[in-house]
Write a structure and sequence with these properties.
The two termini are 22 Å apart. This protein has helices spanning 30-33, 41-48, 123-130, 230-239, 282-285, 396-402, 412-415, 422-428; strands spanning 2-3, 8-9, 13-15, 61-62, 83-90, 99-104, 115-117, 138-146, 153-160, 162-164, 168-176, 188-197, 203-205, 215-219, 227-228, 256-259, 267-272, 277-280, 286-287, 290-292, 299-301, 305-308, 311-312, 322-324, 332-337, 342-348, 356-358, 389-390, 393-394, 407-410, 446-449, 472-475. The protein has 8 helices and 32 strands.
Length: 481
């Protein structure tokens, strides 16, 4: 995505819990990153997703009295020193360019990265609707595949005004959005189980004896991993050697760290009460512990360790729910339709195929097969109905219903590498814990840079990696999938 004239390319974190869009400018430079350990210009630029320079944009307009939408997550409504303005937003080369209101975070901010609000009253969605870039208040997301090897990596996609049928497969489930203080996104799933699928064919329930009671869990694309309860962690610990005190403070904040040689080798199945199962394969569930080099800004990892993408939570209040974050969205495709107050979830198809389907006010969703699932009794919702479309693209009916159509933003594989949420670290990582992934003087490890795809222009190409201590850097394969 880009902002300004001429366009300045920025990377954004899709944030369903926000209505406003937040960007960091060049004055929000290394000094504002120093409190979380990234003090160099390169590291700060990578962490922020790029820094906007309003002084060089001919279309920027400052508006100190801007009244942006109140955010769903109330802790973001009262940051200190915020400034507002608006500029031209460009989602893709072929899309129209609406004016977007943005907020530049001030001296007190819970943000680490440019954040695109996708809440019910999101300024970005309203701007695109007003510009007729899309005909419905609908967005959908596949986070992308983020494994260690090129064969387990695939760029994700965010679609505004519809969904990418090429990234979905099999049956879907449609439910009603249910907003609360515990689930700002409104995507609250009823699960029958969370199951560890061992390579020997054995399945082990993380819910244990409480599986018969089911579980309510919130889907949130702004959360790095999957949050689990202490009882779930105890089951996991009986299967794989993880420790509650060995947690990542890198990209996947608070995830469980283990030695690569002893890492879990199975998969994880998220079983919806409706009967739909979403399986997260091992190469998306157990991945390298990634972090941003504080000097170069290069995304790196320690080859001697792996993280299991789950974050044990402290004892919860009765109204709290657990979260399925971006790890879930590496294997699930989610569409949110605010016009109908519904969401739809599919098993993701991590392919390079793109088939955009615009969803208009009169359009609804269908699955690729006849075995459509319906809502369970604990979550009132309507069953999926037919979406008018043809094999080669939108039908005339769908085009008429969707007016302009859907706009896609591609490239979350790169974007997702630069997320580090301070509020997760404060809440989940034990205090005074040394960074578990930093170089060990007694152990030689290997730094590798993840593939950089400059055609998406989400961040400036990073400088080449250099030698740090006893580590020898190598670049990972960057070929297209």
């Amino acid at each position: 995505m880009s902002l300004g004239t001429p366009p300045q390319n920025l990377a954004f974190l899709p944030y369903p819990g926000l209505n406003n869009t937040y960007i960091f400018d060049v004055d929000s430079g290394p000094g504002t990153c120093s409190s979380i350990g990234d003090s160099s210009t390169q590291a700060c630029n990578a962490l922020r997703g790029g820094l906007f320079n309003e002084q060089t944009s001919g279309s920027w307009a400052t508006n100190s009295t801007i009244e942006a939408s109140e955010d769903s997550q109330s802790q973001f409504n009262n940051t200190i020193g915020d400034t507002g303005g608006e500029d031209t937003l460009k989602l893709s080369a072929s899309s129209t360019s609406p004016r977007l209101q943005v907020i530049i975070p001030g001296v007190k901010s819970d943000f680490s990265m440019n954040s695109l609000g996708l809440g019910r009253n999101a300024t970005a969605l309203n701007a695109l609707n007003s510009a007729r870039s899309m005909a419905s208040t609908v967005w959908s997301v596949f986070w992308g595949s983020t494994g260690a090897s090129s064969s387990s990596q695939q760029n994700g996609v965010l679609v505004m005004g519809g969904y990418d049928s090429g990234k979905t497969r099999g049956d879907n489930f449609t439910g009603d959005l249910s907003f609360s203080d515990s689930c700002f996104t409104g995507v609250l799933l009823s699960l029958s189980d969370l199951t560890l699928n061992l390579v020997n064919g054995t399945d082990i329930s993380l819910l244990g004896s409480s599986a018969s009671q089911g579980l309510r869990i919130c889907v949130d694309a702004s959360y790095p991993t999957i949050s689990i309860s202490q009882s779930m962690f105890n089951v996991l610990q009986s299967v794989t050697p993880v420790s509650n005190t060995s947690r990542s403070i890198g990209v996947n904040a608070a995830a469980l760290i283990t030695e690569a040689s002893a890492a879990y080798t199975g998969s994880l199945t998220v079983a919806l009460a409706s009967g739909l199962n979403i399986t997260i394969p091992n190469d998306q569930l157990v991945i390298p512990d990634q972090y941003i080099d504080q000097t170069t800004g290069v995304l790196s990892f320690n080859s001697n360790t792996r993280i299991f993408c789950a974050s044990p939570q402290p004892p919860q209040d009765s109204g709290d729910v657990l979260i399925l974050g971006r790890t879930f969205l590496t294997s699930a495709y989610l569409m949110v339709d605010y016009d109908k107050n519904q969401y739809t979830v599919w098993q993701a198809n991590p392919s390079g195929t793109q088939d955009l389907v615009a969803v208009g006010p009169s359009s609804t969703c269908t699955t690729a097969s006849s075995g459509n699932t319906t809502a369970d009794s604990s979550s009132p919702s309507s069953s999926p109905t037919n979406l008018s479309r043809t094999q080669n693209g939108l039908s005339a009916g769908a085009k008429a219903g969707a007016a302009v159509g859907a706009v896609a933003v591609v490239g979350f594989l790169t974007l997702g590498a630069f997320i580090l949420r301070r509020r997760y670290l404060r809440r989940q990582v034990p205090q005074n814990q040394p960074p578990p992934y930093l170089p060990n003087q007694e152990k030689t490890s290997t730094l590798k840079e993840l593939p950089h795809k400059p055609q998406y222009h989400e961040l400036p190409p990073p400088p080449p990696p250099h030698e740090i201590g006893d580590w020898t850097p190598h670049e990972m394969p960057g070929e297209a999938l």
